[in-house]
Amino acid sequence: MPRCAAIARKLPPAKAVKSELAVKGLDAPVEVRRHPSARRLTLRVSQTRRAVIVTVPTRCRIDEASLFVHRNLEWVRKRLDALPDIVPFADGMELPLRGVPHQVSFATAGGFGAIVRVEILANGTRGIIVRGRREHCARRLKDWLYAQAKADLDRCVLFHAGRLGLRPRRLALRDQASRWGSCSTTGVLSFSWRLVLAPPLVLDYVAAHEVAHLAEMNHGARFWVLVRQTMPEMDKAKAWLAAHGLSLHRYGAIPDDAGKGADGIQAKA
Fold first, then answer.
1. Distance between CA atoms of 126 and 4, rounded to whole angstroms?
2. If we measure between CA atoms, which residue out of 18, 57, 19, 80 comes closest to residue 269?
């Protein structure tokens, strides 16, 4: 496989420069990232974004990146074909809420009461009813899921912070693809709203994990002692995330909207 020469001089810290690459015979978007810290070409299939990402050294030619993708085209296709189907927010879809399947219904005929509500349907299954004009229902559903996630995380963060004697500065929600939560040095805890789709134990674990980072900004032994102290079932939650976490990115997603996708599988030049 081709290699690009390493950059001899030291470069100041910089973000990757991104560009698009058209590859014949491949339907997925291909993104080329020039990064000063890269010493060789790497090829990654982002499982959350459903995109092909080629990272190259700053001075590597674009035609060499294209050649690298073509040489690994079958590898890329196999991994793209193995990805689970995207499930957009739509009338009739099945959506997990706190780990329990719900059928989504868009009630476009109007009515009274909450814009989004949960109820038991006539067939005995659980349903999420979204009222309003059809073109607004998907956004209203996502806004409601954000609010549900925020309420659950507020409660869990408050519980674990009190238990460990810690105090977060504030809580933020995002649709981040590369991590379920993060803790800044200023005490801001950030979480993926998609945690509300998982069983409550999983959301509770991620909340405990990030709260523990307020005391230990690392993953050393003392950090894990804190997590287990406030979340004894952490191993069960971690195992669920490892086995099923990726599937949560299917819901309400479109192929190129989900961020970094650091969960991808890599090939290297």
1. 55
2. 57
